[in-house]
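Note to self: keep these together.
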Amino acid sequence: MCKGSGQISIQKKINVKIPKGVSQGSKVRVKNEGNKGINGGKDGDLYLIVSLEKNQYYEIDGLNILCNLPITPTEAVLGAEIPLKIMDETITVKIPEMTSSGQKLRLAGLALSNKSKKGDIIINVVIKLPENLSKKEKELYNQLNQLSQGNVRKDFDNAK
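Structure:
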């Protein structure tokens, strides 16, 4: 019912293709899905404002994609090549030997883009321990601990 306004509100489902690489707050135009035209004119356009869902691993910062990438202690020490799915593509992230937790890796130009710029994927490395270690794995860690001659807290111990 128009209740004298001359407009009738209807609800319907439509499928909308969101362009690849669209950023937070972008507008997506859907032709002829807006209000009816006045005096038999063309239907207007519907504009959708994009809101990106956050999760624990990815965040959008302008054109950049920030990624918290969990790796194992072994991958941190020995280095690794880890497949990472970003925007329906799988890329390989090369983790250098002796990577520390919190270390940042930049993959230039592989994130979102606009007409003149391309964003970067910025990887924040997070060393994560496996949830369940076998008895053998614990024995090996114990052996590594006994062999280790490095002191990761030398600067910490001398801090004033």
